[in-house]
Write a structure and sequence with these properties.
Length: 751
């Protein structure tokens, strides 16, 4: 891509047919006609038509006329052409392109005709990307001088279409997860299309029903075409002590359309829950759709409470940095929607890897890892080429930092500063990375746990992976705050008062009760005088020095939107106990097959699983997918005894539940791209049968479940022996049957 812009007005013109708005994920065919400008195109000159690298449209190809994305090119003069499809051979963000070289010259007015999704040979066409983009661009660049220096047509002359949502098929209802008795709160409603986009193609009235009194809840809500969602505000619960509420969304015929996440209402809670996605990008860097739309989506369509933007530092110009700061200041509305200015420090892995940076206030410097795509050298004094340099530069800033795994992964052992780096990111759309928490424990850090989407498609807070290399639904973080404003957010963040989820909004509380008074440190005591107070109780993220106690009581309280599959109680690197809401006697004829893990930590971590499970001696009654996000690639039953699937794992897992007519006899024969195994069905029980596949926790697990499990709330209390001479680090991993997971920040007990 060019560093200069020589006479784009003389580079020709381009038009696309058909034009208009097309449904996300639909199959289409487009004809792009390029008309040569003043210079024509010289012999061995060329064109490129480029697409943003984060699109998940079907890949363009020129080899198979009957295959998806088949593309043909011809000229009005019939000259020979060299055509090839390129991936990641152009400057970000335009990483996908069609290269067309003219092997004779073209003159002004001659035309190059490109058919994307050419159906004349039997191709189904080009499947559009699965997410919404009002201005999707076929970016045309010309090299008329055969210099391999490409000049884009003017922005206003680029061919574009609109990509909009499909019809609504999945209703979503969102409540807060913790409020005080009498607090005013809202119920948020939307209907998503098959790919997870909020749809504006919904009309009709839905009925609302709660499982307990909610003051102000209407009986019905009407949706009109053109609306992407509705908010029902001014609700409250006047419970005397503790109450739980869920709201059901019903069709006009009474059919259940959706059920909200659980709301906990407590009379004396000192804090409330607020949900964030602080990490994503927009089209100004490597993402899609403008930054303004990004924040608006987070507030109005994902119904977040807190949002941040994390563009790659090496692609953020000084002008865009100023714009981002203006946007966060504009969108920040204490009590309703809080934003933080920030960016992603995107250093190479050997220099520390990706780290998220947020400021409490606008107007602070951007400390870049490099200037790979920023072509000016203003303020070189702010460049920080390593994570060590970054943390040193930020030491006196009012800033927050978290280590992140994206394309580059963060090496937390390379650099860490407890003053400004309170937590690590365990999950994003890139996958689930419990190993980064283990890395921190191995280095004896005291960190909290957060999650975000790191979405690149303009959907912060509701990031579906579609069919892209992102293999997971985007994560969320729940913050325990006294009030919704920046000061409370930053203080609670520094004290690690938050928990991470893979996108589910569940109520989670973790605490420790001491037998005798301890000392609660307001920050990591290794930093010196950090403030302290006497305590008998600690919550997630706290650091407490205990007295002479040998044991403490660890409590965990979970109320989830789906049945609980298991809870692992952990002390740092060790699992204390795995708790399930059922026992051996409750197990039924349901077998779960889990594929999980990654090849390694870097960019090529994705494991592309292909598998077949054959149940010899048993008949399959039904199957259900878990964490299969691509609606075009769901598991399928083959005959009465076989299941076949394809999936991608990037540190997390995908699973298939299989209900059998007979689960005590016969053999399960597993044949996958990574491991094979033959398992006696009678030997599959409560505990995992694990077949390791090497790599990074890569494995297939098989276990048995009850036929139906209705347990969505669990309260656990365990006596835990304290370590002497080392931190006791108490936290948990909660796994729901629908595949979502959650982790509270550890409670650190110093003896």
């Amino acid at each position: 891509m060019p560093h200069h812009d020589y006479r784009p007005d003389l580079m020709g013109s381009a038009a696309i047919e058909p034009v208009g708005r097309f449904e996300a994920g639909s199959w289409q065919s487009f004809t792009l006609t390029y008309t040569c400008g003043k210079f024509g195109i010289d012999d061995r000159g060329s064109l490129k038509v480029a697409f943003r690298m984060q699109t998940d449209q079907s890949m363009i190809q020129c080899d198979d006329p009957a295959g998806p994305g088949y593309t043909t090119v011809e000229t009005s003069t019939g000259i020979p052409l060299t055509v090839r499809c390129e991936h990641r051979r152009n400057t970000r963000p335009w990483g996908i392109s069609l290269y067309v070289r003219c092997d004779r010259y073209l003159s002004e007015g001659d035309r190059v005709v490109i058919r994307f999704g050419d159906r004349r040979g039997g191709s189904p066409g080009l499947r559009l990307q699965t997410f919404v983009q009002p201005r999707f661009e076929f970016r045309v660049l010309a090299d008329p001088f055969a210099s391999y220096e490409y000049i884009p047509l003017p922005d206003e002359a680029q061919p574009t279409i609109g990509i909009g949502p499909g019809p609504g098929v999945k209703w979503v209802a969102i409540l807060p997860t913790l409020r005080r008795t009498g607090d005013r709160f809202r119920l948020c409603l939307k209907c998503e299309d098959r790919w997870g986009n909020p749809s504006d193609r919904v009309e009709g009235t839905v009925r609302l029903a709660a499982d307990g009194p909610i003051d102000g809840l209407p009986e019905t809500v009407a949706f009109r075409a053109g609306e992407f969602g509705r908010e029902v505000d001014g609700l409250s619960v006047a419970a005397a002590d503790v109450a739980e509420r869920r709201v059901r969304v019903l069709g006009e015929d009474g059919a259940l359309l959706a059920e909200s996440n659980p709301l906990r209402v407590e009379a004396d809670t000192p804090y409330r829950h607020y949900w964030s996605d602080l990490h994503g990008q927009s089209e100004e860097t490597v993402g899609t759709n403008p930054a303004r739309d990004y924040f608006a989506f987070a507030r109005d369509r994902a119904f977040l409470d807190i949002c941040g933007h994390q563009g790659n530092d090496f692609q953020i110009t000084d002008a865009f940095w100023r714009e981002l700061n203006e946007l966060t200041a504009e969108f920040n509305e204490p009590g309703r929607f809080v934003t933080l200015p920030g960016y992603e420090w995107s250093g190479n892995t050997s220099l520390g890897g990706d780290h998220n940076v947020w400021y409490r206030h606008e107007g602070r410097p951007i400390y870049r890892s490099c200037r790979a795509l920023v072509y000016d050298t203003a303020h070189p004094e702010t460049d920080c080429h390593s994570a060590k340099d970054l943390l040193a530069a930020l030491r006196h800033e009012d800033a927050l930092v978290t280590a992140h795994i994206g394309g580059r992964y963060a090496d937390v052992k390379y650099a860490h500063d407890a003053r400004i780096e309170p937590s690590v990111e365990i999950h994003s759309a890139w996958g689930t990375f419990e190993w980064i928490v283990r890395d921190a424990f191995e280095a004896d850090y005291r960190v909290g746990i957060v999650a975000s989407s790191d979405g690149h498609d303009g959907r912060p807070g509701a990031k579906y992976p579609g069919v892209a290399e992102f293999g997971s639904y985007g994560g969320l973080t729940c913050h325990l705050l006294e009030s919704l404003d920046r000061d409370c957010l930053v203080e609670a963040f520094r004290r690690r008062h938050h928990y991470a989820t893979t996108g589910a909004r569940l109520h989670l509380a973790a605490s420790v009760e001491l037998d005798s008074p301890g000392v609660l440190h307001h920050r990591n005591p290794d930093l010196g005088d950090v403030g302290e107070e006497t305590c008998r109780r600690a919550i997630m993220g706290d650091i407490v020095r205990t007295g002479d106690d040998d044991e403490v009581t660890f409590r965990l309280d979970v109320t989830a939107p789906a049945p609980i599959e298991r809870i692992e109680l952990r002390d740092g690197l060790d699992t204390i106990e795995t708790v399930r809401p059922y026992g051996e006697s409750d197990l039924g004829r349901r077998i779960r097959i889990v594929c999980e893990g990654a090849h390694y930590r870097g960019r090529g971590r994705n494991v592309a699983w292909e598998g077949i499970a054959t149940f010899e001696g048993a008949r399959i009654e039904r199957i259900a997918p878990v964490n299969f996000w691509n609606v075009e690639q769901l598991p399928r039953q083959v005959g009465e005894d076989e299941v076949a699937w394809r999936c991608v794992t990037t540190g997390g897992f995908s699973a298939i539940d299989v209900w059998l007519d007979e689960a005590e006899r016969g053999v399960l024969r597993l044949r996958t791209s990574e491991v094979d195994a033959d398992l006696e069905l009678a030997g599959i029980g409560l505990a995992d049968t694990r077949v390791d596949a090497g790599g990074l926790h890569k494995a297939v697990r098989v276990f048995r479940l009850p036929d139906e499990n209705a347990t969505r709330s669990m309260t656990l209390s365990r006596r835990v022996k304290l370590r002497r001479g080392a931190d006791t680090r108490l936290y948990a991993c909660v796994t729901l049957e629908n595949g979502h997971q959650a982790w509270p920040s550890p409670i650190y007990l110093l003896s």
